Amino acid sequence: MSARVAMITGANRGIGAAIAQALAERGFDLALGVRHPKDLPEDLVKLDPLIVRYQAEDPLAARAFVSATEARFGRIDVLVNNAGIGGPLELMPETPQPDDEMEEVLEQLLSVNVKAPFRLTRAALPSLCRSGSGRVIVVASLSGRRVMGLNAGYQMSKHAAVALSHAARRAGWDSGVRACAVCPGFVATDRTLHHDLPRHEITQPADLAHLVAEIVMLPNSASVPELSVNWRYEPGF
Asked: How many CA atoms lie within 13 A of 178 on its CB side?
């Protein structure tokens, strides 16, 4: 029997790279969708993954990534929608944003965090259904579960990402597809370097990767629809 196959977006670094390593250790073949293939870490290159240049904003990228994965491996068992961006977009900013700047940030947030994973999930779902135990992981955020800060644009996009995970779970349920929205707080990646946070205390990418690996290995009878992961105490999280 051929190895199970995992597609992962945003695998160059941080959470995506850690998930790729964790799934490879579980015996998965990897198809990695990355913006800059030459920047893939050497430890991932050594695993001989399929490397596909994946631009999330490109409407054609999803179908091309899925087609390339099916052509090489003949199957898709796990899809990890990890690629995402942040961006300042408040409803009432202290310094008003020009309308053109606001529209640009909003479009980028929706394009990368919402439209891209929707397209990729839709393109991969038939193969995931054929697997009989297909898994969809959407790396969202606690900002997709509650609103604390003022970055409304990011929060809105991550709430949509959580909804996508539930939609995938519903659409593929009868064919054995299970989906989980993984919702972390602050994680020690490049994206949080500008925050004044204790780097050794916040959630580590490897911690999330371990959890994702455990979730995708669960049987169909043990579905985890959402997983909230936090490094600090918050009521409810």
From this structure: 17
The better pLDDT of the pair 190, 120 is held by: 120
d(CA 121, CA 163): 12
Residue 47: pLDDT above 60?
yes
Q: Is 154 a catalytic residue?
A: yes
Q: Model's pTM, two decimal places?
A: 0.94
Q: How far apart are CA 168 and CA 196, in angstroms?
A: 36
Q: What is the mean pLDDT of residues 62-84?
A: 97
Q: Choosing from 124, 154, 184, 187, which is the catalytic residue? A: 154
- E-strand ranges in 35-167 read 50-53, 78-81, 135-139
Nearest Cα residue to 3 out of 31, 30, 27, 25: 27
Angle, CA 147 vertex, CA 138 and CA 16 arms, to 5°:
25
- Angle of the 152-172 helix axis to the 116-131 helix axis, nearest 10: 20
| Contact indicator for 78, 30 with CB cutoff of 8 Å | no
Structure tokens at 9: 């977006």
